[in-house]
Amino acid sequence: MEIMQVTGSLICSQRVPGLEHWNLRVLRSVKGKLSVAVDPVGASPGNWVFTASGSAARFACGIPETHTDLTIGGIIDFWEPDG
């Protein structure tokens, strides 16, 4: 798992069937790396979230057939980033 911050949404008009209806969010790691994640929890820009990656990401979204390797697992209510 990794802690990341939501920076925005990603809108795609065409998707492969394995992505279904999932909302996609752009995330920034603490080190500044951008990634895209499936969002089953409804995170908003500015929210800090924790993520599941790799094969665990498919199970974290509740539908193992989903084509993802990064899923938001939850919205963090309180966290003070180091540094």
**Low-pLDDT residue spans:** none
Number of DSSP E strands: 5
Overall helicity: under 10%
| Biggest pleated-sheet summary | 5 strands, antiparallel
Q: Structural class, from helix and strand content?
A: mainly beta
Shape descriptor reads globular
Question: What Rg is obtained from the alpha carbons, in whole angstroms?
Answer: 12 Å
Summarize model confidence as the mean pLDDT: 90
Through-space gap between termini:
20 Å
The ordered string of helix (H) and strand (E) elements is: EEEEHE
- Number of helical stretches of at least 4 residues: 1
Strand content: 35-45%
In spatial order, strands of the major sheet run 3-2-1-4-5
Written overview of the protein:
With 83 residues, this protein is mainly beta. Helices cover 7% and strands 41% of the residues. The protein is globular and about 40 Å long. Strands 3-2-1-4-5 form a 5-stranded antiparallel beta sheet.
Write a brief caption for the model.
The protein has 83 residues and is mainly β.
Supply the key terms:
single chain; 83 residues; mainly beta; 5-stranded antiparallel sheet; 7% helix
Please specify the SSE layout and strand pairing.
Blueprint: E1 2-10, E2 23-29, E3 34-39, E4 48-53, H1 55-60, E5 70-75
Antiparallel strand pairs: 1-2, 1-4, 2-3, 4-5
